[in-house]
Amino acid sequence: MKLLLIRHGESEADLLHVHEGRADFSLTENGRWQVHKLAAFLKENYKIDKLYSSTLKRAAETAGIIGEALNLDVELRGELMEHNNGALAGLKYDEVEERYPAPEGGYKMHECVPEGETEIEFRARIEGAFSRILADNGYGTLAIVSHGGAISRMMQAFFRLPFNVEHYVLTGDTGIHLLEDRGTQRIVHFMNSTEHLRR
Fold first, then answer.
1. Residue 98 catalytic?
2. How far apart are CA 7 and CA 62, in angstroms?
């Protein structure tokens, strides 16, 4: 089974310079252009059998454009949403520093911002969602449209890394990671490809 992990296109939060997370911003005009380029690239290069997406607007809009181009229904799953950053969602960065300064050394894995979720809770949620998707599909090619933080946790789950190992994967707007599960082997074909934006 092959897995395409895809980050949404540019969102309005990027232009406003605010914390996004659970704040539900739509794609920008540029973001929609990025996604149309992505959809054309996927149609030309992959036969995708199932398409999943986070329910947040920026991901759902991205998946909707892909689904329309590939004639695929989108299965929306709330558990694929980005990290719940609680009270920080939608606030400007300088406002967060003033109102909710992080503790010295940052938040520990069992700590979180007000009204948010801990790193442990985030990882458990994403890993559960990812595992259920894999269990429901034993073959073919799947695409999951989600968010930068969520994709990092899916990669951690894919390689069965322990919770106390913090590896982060950077993913650009509409960046694609191609993974493959061969049963006894788990393979990375490429990471964070945005070549479709240069075509």
1. no
2. 9
